[in-house]
UniProtKB/TrEMBL annotation:
<keyword id="KW-0479">Metal-binding</keyword>
<dbReference type="GO" id="GO:0008270">
    <property type="term" value="F:zinc ion binding"/>
</dbReference>
<dbReference type="InterPro" id="IPR018200">
    <property type="entry name" value="USP_CS"/>
</dbReference>
<dbReference type="InterPro" id="IPR001607">
    <property type="entry name" value="Znf_UBP"/>
</dbReference>
<comment type="similarity">
    <text>Belongs to the peptidase C19 family.</text>
</comment>
<dbReference type="Pfam" id="PF02148">
    <property type="entry name" value="zf-UBP"/>
</dbReference>
<keyword id="KW-0833">Ubl conjugation pathway</keyword>
<dbReference type="InterPro" id="IPR050185">
    <property type="entry name" value="Ub_carboxyl-term_hydrolase"/>
</dbReference>
<feature type="domain" description="USP">
    <location>
        <begin position="181"/>
        <end position="551"/>
    </location>
</feature>
<dbReference type="InterPro" id="IPR001394">
    <property type="entry name" value="Peptidase_C19_UCH"/>
</dbReference>
<dbReference type="GO" id="GO:0016579">
    <property type="term" value="P:protein deubiquitination"/>
</dbReference>
<keyword id="KW-0863">Zinc-finger</keyword>
<protein>
    <recommendedName>
        <fullName>Ubiquitin carboxyl-terminal hydrolase</fullName>
        <ecNumber>3.4.19.12</ecNumber>
    </recommendedName>
</protein>
<dbReference type="InterPro" id="IPR028889">
    <property type="entry name" value="USP"/>
</dbReference>
<dbReference type="InterPro" id="IPR013083">
    <property type="entry name" value="Znf_RING/FYVE/PHD"/>
</dbReference>
<dbReference type="GO" id="GO:0001917">
    <property type="term" value="C:photoreceptor inner segment"/>
</dbReference>
<feature type="domain" description="UBP-type">
    <location>
        <begin position="26"/>
        <end position="143"/>
    </location>
</feature>
Amino acid sequence: IHSYGKYRSQPSASRRLLRETLKSGLTCQHVSKAVELNSVKKAVTGSLWSVCLDCMKERDVLEMEQVGTHDIRVCLKCGFQGCSQSESQHSVKHQQAHHSDSHCISISLSTWKAWCFECNEELSTHCNKKALAQTLDFLQKHSAKSASGTSKIIKLLEEPAEYADTQRRRSPVNSNLIPVKGITNLGNTCFFNAVMQNLSQTHMLNDLIQEVKDKGHKLKICPPPETNLGPLTVTLSGPEPLTSAMFLFLHSMKEPGKGPVSPKILFSQLCQKAPRFKGYQQQDSQELLHYLLDSVRVEESKRIKAAILKAFNNPTEKTADEETKRQVKAYGKEGVKMNFVDQIFVGELTNTIMCEECEHISTVKEAFIDISLPIIEERVSQHLICIKMTRIKTNYLFFAFADKKTEKVYTSARKQMLISVLPPVVTLHLKRFHQAGMNLRKVNRHVDFPLILDLAPFCSASCKNLRSGERVLYSLYGIVEHSGSMRGGHYTAYVKVRTPQRTSEQQAKMPLEAVSAPPGQWVYVSDTSVQTVPESRVLNSQAYLLFYEELL
């Protein structure tokens, strides 16, 4: 998704014209009277942060589970904080009640966009002697200081009792609960931050990193029986730069303490591998996830291959005999699969296509990091998983042979796509961005998704040796959400703070609708802003990426 930064390559005259247009066209005549930085400072430092103050006054304690779950806007005249998306609309009511005193400009604490109720439009933060920009800067710094979460009142209201008790009892050393910290936006890097929030809450990733992060880690490679080779234990060197930066970042996210984490080192290393993410334009979270995991995967595979060669005294084409080459190849083929990216995120799809005329069957296997699912706008009800046998007109993998000439023939075919290897973490990608002719457009409709997902119906018979009637249950623990349009949008994350769970034999035999999600607390994260939210808000989100972990 590209919307910002596209004018950077234009001639300097064009850039100046664009800047002047932005400054003049979006300058608001109300800023001089409606923005008072000192009043805002005094108000927000003396009250709860990112909480609708009128909701706090009006609602009984037992009815306040929705407080703080909607977009909060700050009045730039007096510093009042009010909700803007709930039924109460306290931000609008505040402006209407103080209409004569110019309380018409407010800033969203989730998107950091300014809005004038009088002009009825979004404002540029570069206008009117920087008053708006200075106030925005103060609010963002204040938000960073408060980024360890919402107020204690909100947390006590929304946390399940068992989670709150765990938080009070737990020790930082042996706890499986990973704190949620805000991540600093480096300039339109919300697409990156939202993905990293989900990776930070991936328990298996954090566990495996602890094993392989240091130089000298031992890796035992066991080739398949047909190779007639025994196990080989190799010693790994230190991790490559991107992987090392990722280790450092995830460790910082787990450390106790307040304040957001800067992803500057990790993002800089990623940009060296994938220059497309440089600059300050908006990008796609799904593409970011692919580039990041693929790049780390390449680095770890290189690290493992080097360790195998070292175990054989670094043979070369000239010095190695055929048996040594065979062994190195066999250990290498098995060893590279043992990198932590493959162990956690990589699965396999089997595509089977059958020609309906000659019944020729073609099978292709391909690895996946996520599964992309289309959203059909025409349908009234949406189904999350669309992997099934369908009759299609194909453009394929068919050729007719006559008189030694090959002719391509188009024919009707049946296509089946099934999961043949399931990874511990399955990421589902809802394809919200579609090509419509020469234009890209976004599908904004809501798609229902389950907290507990049974993937057995979409697996091949060979996958995990599934027997008829067996289930493979996955639990939702993270979401990347995209709000906005193709011209401009914002990525945020929902993550579930929880302890690792196992499926009991009793649960495994229960109907799917009777299986409950593991206990935990959902947290909404928008860059440096962090707040606990109820499950109902999570289920109503406009999901773009869904992260599911296997219930062991």
